[in-house]
Amino acid sequence: MCLILLSYLNHPSYGLILAANRDEFYDRPTAPLDFWDEAPHVLAGRDLKSGGTWLGITKSGRICAITNFRDPAVQLTDAPSRGLLVENYLKGSEPPQRYLQKVKEAGERYNGFNLLAGDESGIFYCSNRTDKIVRLSPGIHGLSNNLLDTPWPKVAKGKRCLEKILSSDEIDCENIFELLSDRNMPPDSDLPDTGVGLEWERILSPLFIKSDIYGTRSSSIVLIGKENITFMERTYIKNGSNSMKHETRQFTLPNDFLQSRHF
Predict the structure, then answer these.
(1) pTM for this entry
(2) Closest by CA position to 148, among listed 162, 134, 164, 131
(3) Which domain holds residue 64?
């Protein structure tokens, strides 16, 4: 996952609204959004190369998502898959703060990551590039391949546009998918310097990424309301004509959260 936008305790109908793009090499094998055979309470896509997932939720409302921290100068060749951090949380039962503390203690084993984990107690964030575990405050947040709410152009634009979309009580998910499909590049002067070179900084700068070998593979929307949870995934498939086709999957889950839940 390379872009996560979320509204937390910021909308009259939904305690959490999450919109995200997963960016990956086109040839990396992936299973689309579905319930897992060995863990039927888990709803997520799946990385078929190294295991794990980038975003998932359970029938009881445990939610977890990850982005890579872009730092090509520090890359471990034998690091375990970061997607397993999401899988292990979704399959487990530990409170998110306790789980993230254990993750941080083992963080040096992994390449750079940002991890969001939540349940009825709230949403929490950690990274192995900072010492803090943060409880998210109400409002609009954004996460790409640097720390939470780092104002990269795609993050700043995404937060601003999501806030505008959510200014209405009624949410049209097509408007959110349209935002996630934005391919406009910011000017070079606004680009971060993460060590990948100017050409790749340009390629990676839009909300929706497209190149010959790497790009946005799927867009996801999670809505946690007062009575149910909706998870939508739109999968993009690059075909031989260099165009993209998409497939949409949608699931609605009963909301089993405790009455005292924070969202």
Answers:
(1) 0.95
(2) 134
(3) 3-254
